[in-house]
Specification:
With 178 residues, this protein is mainly beta. The chain has a single domain, classed as Hypothetical Protein Pfu-838710-001 (Beta Barrel), CATH 2.40.320.10. It contains three helices and ten strands. The chain has helices at 91-98, 142-147, 166-172, and strands at residues 2-5, 21-33, 44-54, 59-66, 69-76, 81-88, 105-115, 118-125, 133-139, 154-157. It has an eight-stranded antiparallel beta barrel. A hairpin with a 4-residue loop joins strand 3 and strand 4. The longest helix is centred in the middle third of the chain and has 8 residues, at 91-98. It is globular and about 40 Å long. Mean pLDDT is 88; it is low at 1-17.
């Protein structure tokens, strides 16, 4: 379920009165991409930096900067089902938050590839993570996610593998061995 809200308990003059955010339950499966894959165009280039990470609680706060949109996100949980809150921020705030992420950053290009009635997001990592290609598919229910049969070009499933979480990749700066 996705909800867009404005806080109601603050004065209209308070900066939070104009804050809009999206809160959702994210149901997603992740896979390594196996073999050659044709991708159209340059993809959407994204820089992601992690402001705070609590691996014990499965919580992270990250800023994503891409052309035309910057998003501050809080995610909680691990595996296939997570809670996610996203807030759009302007360029000035995004760059200020970016300074808090040194040593916990990554760059990737995202491509969208339709597969049956699903949208597969393919992330091609750059910099020290070059060569790593991961795909994820979001679903509207856990039952739909469990029933999903991936195409042959999706390799090993890494949904619950913490080594492939973006915050871990950003912190370690290298893909898992193997």
């Amino acid at each position: 379920m996705t909800v867009v809200e404005k806080p109601r308990s603050v004065s209209p003059q308070h900066p939070a009165a104009c804050l809009e955010y999206t809160m959702a339950t994210e149901i997603e499966r992740k896979f390594l991409v196996d073999g050659p894959l044709e991708l159209d165009g340059p993809g959407r280039v994204m820089e992601q930096g992690y402001i705070a990470i609590d691996p014990d609680a499965g919580t992270e706060v990250r800023i994503r900067i891409e052309e035309g949109i910057n998003t501050l996100a809080v995610k909680r949980g691990g595996g296939m089902v997570r809670t996610e809150i996203e807030i759009e921020v302007d360029d000035e705030k995004a760059r200020a938050l970016w300074t808090l992420t040194e040593g916990r950053r990554l760059t990737k290009s995202r491509y969208i590839k339709p597969y049956r009635n699903h949208r597969v997001e393919i992330d091609v990592y750059g910099g020290p993570l070059s060569g790593l290609v991961v795909a994820d598919v979001e679903f509207s229910s856990e039952a739909e996610a469990l029933a999903f049969e991936p195409p042959a070009w999706l390799g090993r499933e890494i949904t619950g593998d913490a080594a492939y979480r973006n915050n871990v990749l950003a912190r370690l700066g290298a893909p898992p061995a193997g």
